[in-house]
Design goal:
Radius of gyration of chain A: 19 Å
Structural class of chain B: mainly alpha
Low-confidence stretches of chain A: none
Largest sheet of chain B: 2 strands, antiparallel
Radius of gyration of chain B: 22 Å
CATH class of the largest domain in chain A: Alpha Beta
CATH architecture of one domain in chain B: Orthogonal Bundle
Mean pLDDT of chain B: 88
Distance between the termini of chain A: 29 Å
Strand content of chain B: under 5%
Number of helices of chain A: 9
Strand order of the largest sheet of chain B: 1-4
Shape of chain A: globular
Order of helices and strands of chain A: EEEHEEHEHHHEHEHEEHH
CATH superfamily of the largest domain in chain A: P-loop containing nucleotide triphosphate hydrolases
Structural class of chain A: alpha/beta
CATH topology of one domain in chain B: ABC transporter involved in vitamin B12 uptake, BtuC
Oligomer: heterodimer
Strand order of the largest sheet of chain A: 6-7-8-3-9-10
Number of domains of chain A: 2
Helix content of chain B: 55-70%
């Protein structure tokens, strides 16, 4: 427990009469990949939104490396070192791939605000190098000058991942990173995420695809109706009858 | 997109400076080469270039920028009344007050985006306009407008010269700011204003503003606090408007509240969209075209048309004059409206998109080289030519 990096403590959130999260506790360990699974409406996305400051919980707190995240704004949470990949890729569709990746690199260097209106972007060699490097790493370098909006869905997701990775975040939150991807693209993403894991980045991943979950996760938390019903290693969760009942309708995985 | 090296920018600036300073020459054939109109080209060029920093880069559509123009005029006239007839303090003061006003209005308006932002800026501008006519009469002199009088203190001027007969004129260390000197003064400021705008477009700051336009949600989750970025863009464009307003007072030391009316705010929106929002040169083109129509087309009257069409048979002449008369003189708005509609429908990226398309066609025909993809309004840079 001593190397817990993200701690979700007693988080409660209700929308009107609907309890989206009921006193959820979660400990994410350093350098581990932690998957959160559960049926639709289990509160997975709400939990992620609480972590990045998009939703304020009614109760409870989220701390990252000893720092309280609850009540912080999204940009402040990013500056602490938490990056997020969205379910539908949030990119800058009208800008080129290079610009898409340079912007987060600038955020990392300049902080949340810097008035550098008299520097010339062309001369920012360190930023350009970093951006090129990450595009090469994610196999997007050939399209560096294309508009991001023209990419295929899978490429957009990879671009968004590149935008997060260029910041070298300490914690990466991924919301269904392979949803809507072909099997080929999914496997490519799994390989990529495995490579990132080797660099010691902590990841929280929400995923429906069990193939992805069992390929990547060190630990799994199962949510159902806003409550944690099981937590453990993939093997433990796989064998848990309660999980099979709630999540898989009794079917075997 | 950002592939222009600083060296190319130097060339751009040189061409731009020459083009602006030579305006009296190359505008002569279309009858636009008299100082009064040239001054307007430069002044409204500054206004539109500044407005484009907000609207072109961040996509925030302000309907209240005329307020800053009006405030800049009042500030400049007060500087003439209280301090000196020298234009430099007036211009500095007008720019500064424009910026302060923009900071206040921007701070409140930028809490909302989209249509709500536009309505807030519109409301503030109309409020300023009405206040100028009512409560603020001691400062604005109400409907009469703020004018110079013989009794004005002019603290600095009175130290050097005794007040002469009649009203003094605005000057730059003795050089009178009417006619061509007035134009060249505005032209130099336009060149500086354009240079600053070019640098903003080329900077990391400019890229961040473009990214706010593209996807503000991603900007927040990327670690940027977008509010101060927006506020700075708003204040900078407000300062441009204040500068333009003070220059209006420099060329004619009189300030009235009608400069702050919403139609004046709408005009700068038209200029920017007509020329091409988000392009460097487009807003200048738009400003030039609108001011040209306003001054040249509106000067045509039925008598002039009769003279021009005297070669037609009598009955036909009357009919043609009656028809054309709708589009000139008082009806110049109609012509402008038709042109504006045509451009928005066929060239959503403004005149600059048209120029790019023609350029692409020539390139295709000439070298077989693939024409540059026309990205419309998001393209922040193209070369001035």
């Amino acid at each position: 427990m001593n190397d817990t990096v993200l701690k979700v403590a007693d988080v409660h959130k209700s929308f009107g009469g609907l309890h989206a999260l009921r006193d959820v506790n979660l400990d994410i360990e350093q350098s581990k990949t932690h998957a959160i699974i559960g049926p639709n409406g289990a509160g997975k996305s709400t939990l992620l939104n609480v972590c990045v400051g998009r939703i304020e919980p009614d109760n409870g707190s989220v701390t990252f490396d000893g720092e309280t995240l609850t009540g912080k704004k999204p940009h402040e949470i990013n500056q602490v070192g938490v990056a997020r990949v969205f379910q539908t890729p949030e990119i800058f569709p009208e800008l080129t791939l290079m610009q898409n990746v340079m912007i987060p690199a600038l955020a990392k260097r300049d902080g949340s605000f810097k008035f550098n209106a008299f520097r010339i972007l062309q001369g920012e060699n360190d930023i350009r190098d970093e951006a090129e490097h990450i595009l090469e790493d994610l196999d997007l370098i050939d399209q560096r000058d294309s508009e991001a909006g023209s990419l295929s869905r899978g490429d957009k997701r990879r671009l968004e991942l590149a935008m997060c990775l260029v910041q070298h975040p300490r914690l990466l939150l991924l919301d269904e990173p392979t949803a809507g991807m072909s099997r080929h693209d999914t496997n490519r993403t799994i390989d990529l995420l495995k490579r990132i894991k080797e660099r010691g980045m902590t990841k929280v991943i929400i995923e429906h695809d069990m193939h992805v979950v069992f390929s990547l996760a060190d630990r799994i938390t199962v949510l159902a109706q806003g409550t944690v019903i099981a937590e453990g290693t993939p093997d433990e969760v796989r064998g848990n009858p309660q999980v099979q009942e709630a999540y898989l309708g009794g079917a075997h995985i | 997109m950002f592939n222009l090296s600083p060296k190319n920018d130097t060339v751009t600036m040189a061409i731009f400076a020459i083009a602006v300073l030579a305006m009296p020459l190359w505008l002569a054939p279309i009858g636009a080469s008299y100082p009064d109109l040239l001054q307007k080209f430069a002044i409204f060029g500054i206004f539109a270039v500044g407005y484009n920093i907000l609207f072109g880069l961040t996509g925030y559509l302000s309907f209240g920028h005329a307020a800053f123009l009006g405030v800049g005029s009042y500030a400049a006239v007060w500087s003439f009344k209280l301090v000196t007839m020298n234009v430099l303090p007036a211009v500095l003061f007008g720019t500064l007050i424009g910026g302060v006003f923009a900071a206040l209005i921007g701070f409140v308006s930028l809490r909302r985006s989209g249509i709500y932002f536009s309505i807030l800026t519109l409301a503030f501008a109309q409020m300023s306009y009405n206040l100028a006519y009512s409560v603020l009469t001691p400062i604005t002199n109400g409907e009469t407008g703020l004018q110079l009088t013989q009794q004005d203190p002019r603290i600095i001027d009175s130290l050097f010269v005794a007040a002469g007969e009649g009203l003094p004129s605005t000057n730059l260390f003795g050089l009178k700011m009417s006619g061509y000197p007035g134009f060249y003064f505005c032209a130099v400021l336009l060149i500086i204003a354009f240079f600053i705008s070019l640098r903003i477009f080329r900077s990391p700051f400019g890229l961040k503003l473009l990214a706010i336009k593209s996807n503000q949600v991603r900007m927040n989750y990327t670690g940027f606090n977008t509010r101060p970025y927006m506020l700075i863009a708003f204040v900078v464009s407000g300062m441009y408007a204040g500068l333009a307003g003070s220059l209006l007072a420099v060329t004619d030391p009189l300030a009235g509240a009608e400069r702050m009316q919403w139609t004046a705010s709408g005009e700068v929106v038209l200029m920017t969209i007509l020329g091409g929002a988000g392009t460097l040169v487009g807003p200048l083109l738009g400003a030039g075209i609108i001011k040209y129509f306003e001054n040249i087309f509106s000067a045509y009257n039925d008598q002039l048309l009769h003279q021009m069409l005297a070669f037609l048979p009598d009955g036909m002449e009357g009919a043609v004059v009656a028809l054309l008369g709708l589009f000139v003189g008082e009806g110049w708005h109609l012509t402008l409206g038709i042109i504006f509609m045509a451009i928005v429908i066929f060239l959503p990226g403004g005149l600059m998109e048209g120029i790019r398309r023609i350029g692409g066609m020539i390139q295709k025909r000439g070298g077989g080289k693939k024409p540059e993809q026309t990205g419309g309004v998001m393209r922040p840079t193209e070369q001035e030519g």
